[in-house]
Sequence to fold (396 residues):
Amino acid sequence: MEKLGIEKTSSSYTTPGSRACLLDLLCTETPLWGCQGDLYLLGPQQRLNKFLSESGNTICADCASPDPKWVSLNLGAVICIKCSGVHRSLGVHVSKVLSVKLDQWTHEQVNSLIDLGGNSTVNMKYEACTPGNIKKPNPDSSVHERIDFIRRKYQLQQFSRCDQLITPCPFPAGYSKCTQKAQSFSVISPPSPSCLQNSKLYDKQATKTRIGNAFRNSWVRKEFENKSCRKKAALTNLQAGMVEFVGLIKVNIVRGMNLAIRDMLTSDPYVIISLGQQSVKTRFIRSNLNPIWNECLMLSIPDDVPPLKVLVYDKDTFKSDDFMGEGEIDIQPLLSTARANEKSGMANSMPLDNALVKNSLIKLVDGKVKQDITLRLQKVETGELHIELECVPLTQ
Ligand SMILES: [Zn+2]
Fold:
Protein backbone atom coordinates (compact mmCIF):
# COMPACT_ATOMS: atom_id res chain seq x y z
CA MET A 1 0.00 0.00 0.00
CA GLU A 2 2.51 2.54 1.08
CA LYS A 3 4.87 1.63 -1.75
CA LEU A 4 2.26 2.55 -4.28
CA GLY A 5 1.82 5.94 -2.76
CA ILE A 6 5.35 7.14 -3.12
CA GLU A 7 6.96 5.21 -5.89
CA LYS A 8 4.19 5.52 -8.38
CA THR A 9 3.21 9.11 -7.91
CA SER A 10 6.48 10.80 -7.37
CA SER A 11 9.94 10.58 -8.77
CA SER A 12 11.62 12.97 -6.38
CA TYR A 13 12.24 10.78 -3.36
CA THR A 14 15.39 9.18 -2.20
CA THR A 15 15.65 5.57 -1.20
CA PRO A 16 13.83 5.11 2.06
CA GLY A 17 15.66 3.82 5.06
CA SER A 18 18.71 6.02 4.99
CA ARG A 19 18.89 8.21 8.06
CA ALA A 20 21.23 10.69 6.37
CA CYS A 21 18.96 10.96 3.34
CA LEU A 22 15.95 11.49 5.50
CA LEU A 23 17.70 14.17 7.54
CA ASP A 24 18.77 15.98 4.38
CA LEU A 25 15.29 15.73 2.98
CA LEU A 26 13.61 17.01 6.10
CA CYS A 27 16.08 19.83 6.63
CA THR A 28 15.91 21.12 3.09
CA GLU A 29 12.30 20.54 2.21
CA THR A 30 10.37 20.75 5.44
CA PRO A 31 11.81 23.41 7.68
CA LEU A 32 8.67 23.02 9.77
CA TRP A 33 10.17 19.95 11.33
CA GLY A 34 13.58 21.49 11.81
CA CYS A 35 16.84 19.65 12.25
CA GLN A 36 16.73 19.14 15.97
CA GLY A 37 17.48 15.76 17.40
CA ASP A 38 13.92 15.38 18.60
CA LEU A 39 12.82 15.11 14.95
CA TYR A 40 13.46 11.41 15.19
CA LEU A 41 11.39 11.12 18.28
CA LEU A 42 8.35 11.72 16.10
CA GLY A 43 7.22 8.80 14.00
CA PRO A 44 5.51 9.32 10.63
CA GLN A 45 2.09 8.89 12.23
CA GLN A 46 2.78 11.59 14.84
CA ARG A 47 4.05 13.96 12.19
CA LEU A 48 0.94 13.21 10.14
CA ASN A 49 -1.32 13.90 13.14
CA LYS A 50 0.44 17.21 13.73
CA PHE A 51 -0.08 18.13 10.09
CA LEU A 52 -3.77 17.20 10.34
CA SER A 53 -4.23 19.47 13.34
CA GLU A 54 -2.94 22.49 11.44
CA SER A 55 -5.28 25.19 10.24
CA GLY A 56 -7.12 24.24 7.05
CA ASN A 57 -6.53 20.52 7.53
CA THR A 58 -9.11 20.03 10.27
CA ILE A 59 -11.96 20.10 7.74
CA CYS A 60 -12.42 18.24 4.46
CA ALA A 61 -10.87 20.11 1.51
CA ASP A 62 -13.93 19.38 -0.62
CA CYS A 63 -17.00 19.51 1.63
CA ALA A 64 -15.75 21.00 4.93
CA SER A 65 -16.76 17.98 7.06
CA PRO A 66 -14.93 18.20 10.38
CA ASP A 67 -12.07 15.90 11.38
CA PRO A 68 -11.27 14.30 8.01
CA LYS A 69 -9.34 11.05 8.20
CA TRP A 70 -8.36 10.46 4.58
CA VAL A 71 -5.67 11.96 2.39
CA SER A 72 -5.17 12.26 -1.34
CA LEU A 73 -1.42 11.81 -1.31
CA ASN A 74 -0.69 13.14 -4.77
CA LEU A 75 -3.11 16.07 -4.60
CA GLY A 76 -2.20 16.91 -1.01
CA ALA A 77 -5.83 17.21 0.12
CA VAL A 78 -7.10 16.06 3.51
CA ILE A 79 -10.62 14.74 2.91
CA CYS A 80 -13.55 13.04 4.63
CA ILE A 81 -14.59 9.45 4.04
CA LYS A 82 -17.49 10.38 1.76
CA CYS A 83 -15.31 12.49 -0.51
CA SER A 84 -12.57 9.83 -0.34
CA GLY A 85 -14.99 7.38 -2.02
CA VAL A 86 -15.39 9.82 -4.90
CA HIS A 87 -11.64 10.41 -5.13
CA ARG A 88 -11.05 6.67 -5.25
CA SER A 89 -13.60 6.23 -8.00
CA LEU A 90 -11.67 8.65 -10.22
CA GLY A 91 -8.74 6.24 -10.28
CA VAL A 92 -5.29 6.32 -8.70
CA HIS A 93 -3.93 8.27 -11.66
CA VAL A 94 -6.10 11.20 -10.53
CA SER A 95 -6.15 10.75 -6.76
CA LYS A 96 -4.23 8.28 -4.65
CA VAL A 97 -6.20 7.96 -1.44
CA LEU A 98 -4.63 6.82 1.82
CA SER A 99 -6.23 6.40 5.21
CA VAL A 100 -4.81 8.26 8.18
CA LYS A 101 -5.70 5.34 10.41
CA LEU A 102 -5.51 2.25 8.23
CA ASP A 103 -2.40 2.84 6.21
CA GLN A 104 1.12 2.60 7.58
CA TRP A 105 2.64 5.95 6.70
CA THR A 106 6.32 6.45 5.94
CA HIS A 107 8.33 9.62 6.57
CA GLU A 108 8.64 10.02 2.80
CA GLN A 109 4.87 10.01 2.37
CA VAL A 110 4.41 12.54 5.15
CA ASN A 111 7.11 14.73 3.59
CA SER A 112 5.35 14.49 0.26
CA LEU A 113 2.08 15.56 1.85
CA ILE A 114 3.62 18.45 3.79
CA ASP A 115 5.35 19.66 0.64
CA LEU A 116 1.99 20.12 -1.07
CA GLY A 117 1.07 22.66 1.59
CA GLY A 118 -2.15 21.32 3.08
CA ASN A 119 -5.79 22.04 2.28
CA SER A 120 -5.47 25.85 2.12
CA THR A 121 -2.76 25.66 -0.53
CA VAL A 122 -4.54 22.87 -2.41
CA ASN A 123 -7.79 24.84 -2.52
CA MET A 124 -6.01 28.02 -3.54
CA LYS A 125 -4.70 26.06 -6.50
CA TYR A 126 -7.72 23.97 -7.48
CA GLU A 127 -10.48 26.43 -6.60
CA ALA A 128 -8.85 29.70 -7.60
CA CYS A 129 -11.25 30.42 -10.44
CA THR A 130 -14.40 28.76 -9.14
CA PRO A 131 -17.32 30.43 -10.94
CA GLY A 132 -19.91 32.13 -8.72
CA ASN A 133 -22.64 29.73 -9.76
CA ILE A 134 -20.70 26.68 -8.57
CA LYS A 135 -21.62 25.67 -5.06
CA LYS A 136 -19.06 23.72 -3.07
CA PRO A 137 -20.46 20.57 -1.42
CA ASN A 138 -21.19 20.65 2.30
CA PRO A 139 -21.05 17.76 4.80
CA ASP A 140 -24.65 16.80 3.95
CA SER A 141 -24.33 17.01 0.17
CA SER A 142 -25.44 14.04 -1.92
CA VAL A 143 -22.93 11.77 -3.55
CA HIS A 144 -23.94 13.21 -6.94
CA GLU A 145 -23.08 16.74 -5.83
CA ARG A 146 -19.74 15.52 -4.53
CA ILE A 147 -18.90 13.63 -7.71
CA ASP A 148 -19.71 16.61 -9.88
CA PHE A 149 -17.61 19.04 -7.87
CA ILE A 150 -14.64 16.78 -7.13
CA ARG A 151 -14.37 15.62 -10.70
CA ARG A 152 -14.44 19.17 -12.04
CA LYS A 153 -12.07 20.39 -9.36
CA TYR A 154 -9.27 17.82 -9.69
CA GLN A 155 -9.77 15.68 -12.79
CA LEU A 156 -10.93 18.35 -15.21
CA GLN A 157 -9.33 21.17 -13.22
CA GLN A 158 -12.05 23.57 -14.25
CA PHE A 159 -11.59 25.82 -11.25
CA SER A 160 -7.81 26.14 -11.32
CA ARG A 161 -6.16 29.41 -12.26
CA CYS A 162 -6.64 30.17 -15.92
CA ASP A 163 -2.93 30.66 -16.54
CA GLN A 164 -2.35 27.16 -15.21
CA LEU A 165 -4.95 25.64 -17.43
CA ILE A 166 -3.66 27.00 -20.70
CA THR A 167 -0.54 25.32 -21.97
CA PRO A 168 1.19 25.81 -25.33
CA CYS A 169 -0.43 23.84 -28.08
CA PRO A 170 1.88 21.27 -29.72
CA PHE A 171 -0.45 20.77 -32.69
CA PRO A 172 -0.95 22.86 -35.82
CA ALA A 173 -3.49 25.68 -35.61
CA GLY A 174 -6.97 24.37 -35.07
CA TYR A 175 -5.84 21.45 -32.91
CA SER A 176 -5.02 21.59 -29.27
CA LYS A 177 -3.92 18.99 -26.81
CA CYS A 178 -4.38 20.55 -23.44
CA THR A 179 -2.61 18.53 -20.83
CA GLN A 180 -1.15 19.78 -17.64
CA LYS A 181 1.33 18.40 -15.19
CA ALA A 182 -0.04 18.18 -11.70
CA GLN A 183 2.73 17.23 -9.32
CA SER A 184 4.49 14.29 -10.89
CA PHE A 185 1.86 12.84 -13.14
CA SER A 186 -0.37 13.87 -15.98
CA VAL A 187 -3.93 14.96 -15.69
CA ILE A 188 -6.06 15.31 -18.77
CA SER A 189 -7.77 18.67 -19.04
CA PRO A 190 -10.88 19.10 -21.13
CA PRO A 191 -10.31 20.33 -24.66
CA SER A 192 -10.63 24.04 -25.32
CA PRO A 193 -13.18 25.05 -28.00
CA SER A 194 -10.44 24.95 -30.62
CA CYS A 195 -9.65 21.38 -29.58
CA LEU A 196 -13.10 20.31 -30.50
CA GLN A 197 -12.37 20.87 -34.18
CA ASN A 198 -10.47 17.65 -34.08
CA SER A 199 -11.80 15.80 -31.14
CA LYS A 200 -10.77 12.51 -32.72
CA LEU A 201 -7.14 13.45 -32.48
CA TYR A 202 -7.65 14.69 -28.94
CA ASP A 203 -9.32 11.45 -27.92
CA LYS A 204 -6.48 9.47 -29.39
CA GLN A 205 -3.83 11.44 -27.54
CA ALA A 206 -5.70 11.61 -24.30
CA THR A 207 -6.34 7.90 -24.31
CA LYS A 208 -2.70 7.20 -24.91
CA THR A 209 -1.70 9.22 -21.86
CA ARG A 210 -4.41 7.58 -19.82
CA ILE A 211 -3.17 4.10 -20.69
CA GLY A 212 0.33 5.13 -19.65
CA ASN A 213 -0.98 6.20 -16.28
CA ALA A 214 -2.98 3.05 -15.91
CA PHE A 215 0.02 0.86 -16.57
CA ARG A 216 2.28 2.84 -14.27
CA ASN A 217 -0.19 2.32 -11.52
CA SER A 218 -0.74 -1.35 -12.38
CA TRP A 219 -4.23 -1.26 -11.02
CA VAL A 220 -6.08 -2.01 -14.19
CA ARG A 221 -6.75 -5.53 -15.36
CA LYS A 222 -5.06 -6.75 -18.45
CA GLU A 223 -8.38 -7.23 -20.12
CA PHE A 224 -8.92 -3.48 -19.92
CA GLU A 225 -6.22 -3.14 -22.53
CA ASN A 226 -8.71 -3.10 -25.33
CA LYS A 227 -10.32 0.23 -25.96
CA SER A 228 -13.95 -0.60 -25.38
CA CYS A 229 -13.09 -2.24 -22.07
CA ARG A 230 -11.18 0.85 -21.00
CA LYS A 231 -14.18 3.06 -21.71
CA LYS A 232 -16.35 0.63 -19.81
CA ALA A 233 -13.90 0.69 -16.92
CA ALA A 234 -13.97 4.48 -16.75
CA LEU A 235 -17.74 4.44 -16.74
CA THR A 236 -17.81 1.71 -14.12
CA ASN A 237 -15.51 3.72 -11.88
CA LEU A 238 -17.79 6.71 -12.14
CA GLN A 239 -20.81 4.56 -11.42
CA ALA A 240 -18.96 3.17 -8.41
CA GLY A 241 -18.53 6.74 -7.22
CA MET A 242 -22.29 7.25 -7.31
CA VAL A 243 -22.95 4.40 -4.92
CA GLU A 244 -23.32 5.24 -1.25
CA PHE A 245 -20.58 3.52 0.72
CA VAL A 246 -21.03 2.22 4.22
CA GLY A 247 -17.43 1.51 5.03
CA LEU A 248 -14.08 0.34 3.81
CA ILE A 249 -12.45 -3.01 3.66
CA LYS A 250 -8.71 -3.48 3.72
CA VAL A 251 -7.76 -6.76 2.11
CA ASN A 252 -4.30 -8.14 2.72
CA ILE A 253 -3.55 -10.85 0.18
CA VAL A 254 -0.97 -12.64 2.29
CA ARG A 255 0.01 -15.72 0.30
CA GLY A 256 -1.05 -18.52 -1.98
CA MET A 257 -0.56 -22.20 -1.27
CA ASN A 258 -0.31 -25.12 -3.72
CA LEU A 259 -1.63 -23.07 -6.59
CA ALA A 260 -2.38 -24.69 -9.93
CA ILE A 261 0.24 -25.12 -12.65
CA ARG A 262 -0.59 -23.14 -15.78
CA ASP A 263 2.75 -22.86 -17.56
CA MET A 264 5.18 -25.76 -18.14
CA LEU A 265 5.98 -26.50 -14.51
CA THR A 266 4.79 -23.49 -12.59
CA SER A 267 2.68 -20.28 -12.81
CA ASP A 268 3.09 -16.52 -12.50
CA PRO A 269 0.13 -15.84 -10.23
CA TYR A 270 -1.65 -12.63 -9.33
CA VAL A 271 -4.93 -11.97 -7.51
CA ILE A 272 -7.85 -9.76 -8.48
CA ILE A 273 -10.40 -8.80 -5.86
CA SER A 274 -13.66 -7.08 -6.63
CA LEU A 275 -16.49 -5.68 -4.59
CA GLY A 276 -19.53 -4.44 -6.49
CA GLN A 277 -18.19 -2.34 -9.35
CA GLN A 278 -14.68 -1.90 -8.00
CA SER A 279 -11.80 -4.13 -8.88
CA VAL A 280 -8.12 -4.06 -7.90
CA LYS A 281 -5.26 -6.49 -8.25
CA THR A 282 -1.92 -7.49 -6.79
CA ARG A 283 1.38 -7.63 -8.63
CA PHE A 284 2.22 -10.97 -10.23
CA ILE A 285 4.92 -13.18 -8.79
CA ARG A 286 7.07 -15.08 -11.26
CA SER A 287 7.33 -18.87 -11.23
CA ASN A 288 5.85 -19.56 -7.82
CA LEU A 289 3.05 -21.87 -6.74
CA ASN A 290 3.35 -20.72 -3.10
CA PRO A 291 3.73 -16.97 -3.62
CA ILE A 292 3.89 -14.44 -0.80
CA TRP A 293 2.29 -11.16 -1.85
CA ASN A 294 1.59 -9.56 1.50
CA GLU A 295 -0.12 -6.83 -0.47
CA CYS A 296 -2.87 -4.64 0.98
CA LEU A 297 -5.71 -3.50 -1.25
CA MET A 298 -8.51 -1.21 -0.17
CA LEU A 299 -12.08 -1.16 -1.42
CA SER A 300 -15.16 0.85 -0.44
CA ILE A 301 -18.11 -1.23 0.75
CA PRO A 302 -21.30 -0.38 -1.18
CA ASP A 303 -24.47 -0.18 0.93
CA ASP A 304 -25.85 -3.45 -0.46
CA VAL A 305 -22.67 -5.16 0.87
CA PRO A 306 -21.95 -7.55 -2.00
CA PRO A 307 -19.62 -10.53 -1.46
CA LEU A 308 -15.91 -9.97 -1.95
CA LYS A 309 -14.92 -11.85 -5.08
CA VAL A 310 -11.44 -13.25 -5.44
CA LEU A 311 -9.89 -14.41 -8.70
CA VAL A 312 -6.43 -15.85 -9.30
CA TYR A 313 -4.77 -15.68 -12.71
CA ASP A 314 -1.50 -16.75 -14.28
CA LYS A 315 0.20 -13.82 -15.99
CA ASP A 316 1.09 -14.47 -19.61
CA THR A 317 2.90 -12.11 -21.91
CA PHE A 318 1.87 -13.35 -25.33
CA LYS A 319 -1.55 -14.81 -24.69
CA SER A 320 -4.43 -14.06 -22.38
CA ASP A 321 -3.93 -14.82 -18.72
CA ASP A 322 -4.92 -18.28 -17.47
CA PHE A 323 -7.57 -18.83 -14.83
CA MET A 324 -6.25 -20.33 -11.58
CA GLY A 325 -9.38 -20.41 -9.45
CA GLU A 326 -11.84 -18.16 -7.69
CA GLY A 327 -13.61 -17.69 -4.40
CA GLU A 328 -16.16 -15.54 -2.64
CA ILE A 329 -16.18 -14.10 0.87
CA ASP A 330 -19.26 -12.85 2.70
CA ILE A 331 -18.11 -9.65 4.40
CA GLN A 332 -21.43 -8.88 6.09
CA PRO A 333 -20.46 -10.50 9.45
CA LEU A 334 -17.21 -8.56 9.51
CA LEU A 335 -18.98 -5.27 8.78
CA SER A 336 -21.64 -5.96 11.42
CA THR A 337 -18.97 -6.72 13.98
CA ALA A 338 -17.04 -3.57 13.10
CA ARG A 339 -20.21 -1.50 13.50
CA ALA A 340 -21.05 -3.14 16.82
CA ASN A 341 -17.50 -2.60 17.99
CA GLU A 342 -17.61 1.05 17.05
CA LYS A 343 -20.93 1.65 18.77
CA SER A 344 -19.89 0.00 21.98
CA GLY A 345 -16.60 1.90 22.04
CA MET A 346 -14.83 -1.12 23.42
CA ALA A 347 -11.40 -0.85 24.92
CA ASN A 348 -8.68 -2.24 22.71
CA SER A 349 -8.00 -5.26 24.83
CA MET A 350 -11.59 -6.30 25.43
CA PRO A 351 -12.62 -9.59 23.87
CA LEU A 352 -15.47 -9.48 21.39
CA ASP A 353 -18.73 -10.61 22.87
CA ASN A 354 -20.95 -10.62 19.87
CA ALA A 355 -23.21 -13.40 18.67
CA LEU A 356 -22.12 -12.74 15.11
CA VAL A 357 -18.54 -13.64 15.74
CA LYS A 358 -18.94 -16.71 17.88
CA ASN A 359 -17.16 -19.64 16.28
CA SER A 360 -15.73 -17.38 13.62
CA LEU A 361 -12.27 -16.05 12.99
CA ILE A 362 -13.29 -12.42 13.43
CA LYS A 363 -11.14 -10.82 16.09
CA LEU A 364 -10.36 -7.49 17.66
CA VAL A 365 -6.69 -6.52 17.39
CA ASP A 366 -5.59 -3.14 18.78
CA GLY A 367 -9.11 -1.83 18.37
CA LYS A 368 -9.31 -3.02 14.76
CA VAL A 369 -11.85 -5.59 13.62
CA LYS A 370 -10.05 -8.22 11.55
CA GLN A 371 -10.71 -11.58 10.01
CA ASP A 372 -8.26 -14.26 8.92
CA ILE A 373 -9.40 -16.41 6.07
CA THR A 374 -7.98 -19.42 4.29
CA LEU A 375 -9.86 -19.58 1.05
CA ARG A 376 -10.01 -22.85 -0.86
CA LEU A 377 -10.12 -21.81 -4.50
CA GLN A 378 -13.04 -23.09 -6.57
CA LYS A 379 -13.27 -24.30 -10.18
CA VAL A 380 -9.62 -25.35 -10.10
CA GLU A 381 -7.77 -28.56 -9.25
CA THR A 382 -5.76 -27.09 -6.36
CA GLY A 383 -4.95 -23.90 -4.49
CA GLU A 384 -5.66 -21.88 -1.36
CA LEU A 385 -5.24 -18.24 -0.47
CA HIS A 386 -4.51 -16.78 2.93
CA ILE A 387 -6.29 -13.44 3.24
CA GLU A 388 -6.58 -10.97 6.11
CA LEU A 389 -9.52 -8.59 6.17
CA GLU A 390 -9.98 -5.44 8.18
CA CYS A 391 -13.20 -3.46 8.16
CA VAL A 392 -13.79 0.19 8.94
CA PRO A 393 -17.36 1.49 9.14
CA LEU A 394 -18.22 4.77 7.47
CA THR A 395 -18.05 7.01 10.49
CA GLN A 396 -14.23 6.99 10.80
ZN1 LIG B 1 -15.71 15.75 2.28
